[in-house]
Amino acid sequence: MTKRQEIFVREYLISLNATDAAEKAGYSKKTANRIGHELLQRPDIAEAVKSKIEKRFTKLDISADRILNELARIAFADLKKVMDWNDGRIEIKNSDEIADDDSAAIAEISETITGQGTITRKLRHHDKVRALELLGKYQKLFIEKHEHSGPDGKPLIDSFSSLVKLLDSKANGN
Fold first, then answer.
1. How many CB atoms sit inside 10 A of residue 35's CB?
2. SS3 state at 3
3. CA-to-CA distance for 105 and 150, rounded, in angstroms?
């Protein structure tokens, strides 16, 4: 690889934007989009990017198991283990009372005191539905089905059968 290509790889790993990386590597702004795409198609550059990403993931201990575990912690966290609500009041439990699996699902905890001295506590949870959706996709629970129809609106197989019959009748002189 040339020095410019090495810079491209380094910059691409920062932004994951081929055009931006090509510009920062010194390629023309006019051609950076095309060149960035072309560079990523080169086997030596694609391998360099892949290798560096794998090294980064290994160093940071990012694995499929770890990602799935974190999604599961969000998806299956139980709010009753994080807070209590009684008589219109919400009490967030002390951090030492909350299990790591449940605390991982917390995105934000805030407390506001109004001018009248009223305390408002807010707990925001990471998106549980999105975590469940991602886990479901990983487990192939949600498979998109596409129905194709012919020009007459009937299922394609019926349209095909009709077409074959029509061609047969024309071939037989009918």
1. 20
2. helix
3. 48
SS3 category, 114: coil
| Both tokens assigned to 48 | 């360099």
Q: How far apart are CA 118 and CA 130, in angstroms?
A: 34
Reported as a pLDDT band with limits 50, 70 and 90, residue 41 is very high
Residue reference for tokens 């609500």? 85
Let me know: does 150 contact 156? Beta carbons within 8 Å: yes
Give the angle subtended at the CA of 35 by the CAs of 31 and 38, to the nearest 5°: 150
Q: Tell me the CA distances in angstroms from 124 to 109, 111, 121, 146, one per residue in order.
A: 6, 12, 10, 37
Q: Domain residues of the chain, as ranges?
A: 3-59, 71-133, 148-174
pLDDT tens-digit series, residues 50-103: 999 989 888 888 888 989 999 999 999 888 888 888 887 778 888 899 888 888
Token output for 162: 């009709």
The CATH class of 3-59 is mainly alpha
Q: Has this prediction a pTM greater than 0.70?
A: no
The whole-angstrom separation of Cα 134 and Cα 109 is 25
Which residues have CB under 8 Å from 15's CB, separation 6+?
A: 21
